[in-house]
Write a structure and sequence with these properties.
Layout lengths: L16 H12 L3 H14 L4 E7 L5 E6 L39 H8 L1 E7 L6 E6 L5 E7 L4 E7 L6 H9 L1 H18 L4 E7 L5 E6 L6 H9 L1 H5 L1 E5 L5 H6 L16 E5 L4
Parallel strand pairs: 1-7
Antiparallel strand pairs: 1-2, 2-6, 3-4, 3-6, 4-5, 7-8, 9-10
Length: about 280
């Protein structure tokens, strides 16, 4: 007898749309830092002058971002967490002059697929606020009136719970994830003049700590002091973009037409002193 030769059969299956959404969402929001970053950017883009980030048990239990921005109009509730829906651009041409932190319209949709998401919001033109609860596909499951000032509160519960492996890794590396989140949030604290940003952490035992805060200052200098302290501020040198001298143009073979006045941007900031 001879062994029968079996020809392998390859069958292609279309992945379920729900599974596709979960897979893609896991590539948009990869870490705790990414989740907080997306929500803080939305708050600042909404014109908020106060943004509070609140985490329970390093973000495992919940992440809450509260702002006093413009809020969400009721006409936009249904599309708020749908993929590729955004108020920040209308078409591809708008990308040339985009002046917001984000515009893809994927953050809230992705977060819905990764955790339990709820939003309390009140638009400036509304008399009362609204609490919205969403399912993992971004559809509203509950809507009820709520008392609050104009602005928006986004609450994430059990982040990454829909991805067991990611969730386990998140809990295993809690302190690293939390540290990276603070590092990213610090950058927004530095550049956001006129915006008060604070971050508080509530431990699993209920102890509350303020881990980061700025004071809605109108200067970068004050923001640096708030984040890094007065001593660190003393070790920095402020710099500003200025017109070059004629000798500099000659040295690099440039003409006055190549001056800073012809560049569509201006650079200012602070740099460490080269004393160490």
């Amino acid at each position: 007898m001879t062994d029968a030769k079996i020809n392998p059969i390859c069958i292609l299956f279309a992945i379920n749309r729900g599974d596709v959404h979960r897979i893609c969402s896991g590539q948009v929001v990869l870490t705790l830092a990414t989740a907080v970053k997306e929500l803080v950017e939305n708050s600042i883009d909404a014109g908020a002058t106060s943004v509070e980030v609140k985490l329970k048990d390093h973000g495992v239990d919940s992440v809450e971002v509260v702002d006093n921005g413009s809020g969400v109009e009721s006409a936009n509730f249904q599309a708020l967490t749908l993929k590729h829906h955004t108020s920040k651009i209308r078409d591809f041409g708008d990308l040339i002059g985009v002046e917001t932190f984000g515009f893809r319209g994927e953050a809230l949709s992705s977060l819905c697929a990764l955790c339990r998401l709820s939003i309390n919001t009140r638009h400036q033109s509304s008399a009362v606020g609204t609490r919205l609860t969403f399912d993992h596909s971004g559809k509203i499951t509950d809507q009820s009136p709520v008392h609050r000032q104009p602005g928006t509160t986004v609450v994430l519960e059990q982040l990454f719970s829909t991805l067991p492996v990611r969730h386990s890794e998140f809990k295993r590396n809690l302190k690293k994830e939390f540290s990276r989140m603070l590092h990213v949030l610090s950058a927004y604290c530095l550049i956001s003049v006129g915006v008060r940003i604070s971050c508080t952490h509530v431990t699993s035992k209920g102890k509350k700590n303020v881990v980061l805060a700025t004071q809605s200052s109108s200067s970068f200098r004050d923001n640096i002091t708030s984040v890094f302290g007065f001593k660190q501020m003393q070790s920095l040198v402020e710099f500003e973009q200025v017109q070059a001298e004629d000798a500099t143009y000659e040295e690099f073979g440039l003409s006055p037409e190549d001056s800073a006045a012809s560049v569509p941007f201006k650079i200012t900031g602070f740099v460490s002193r080269p004393e160490h």
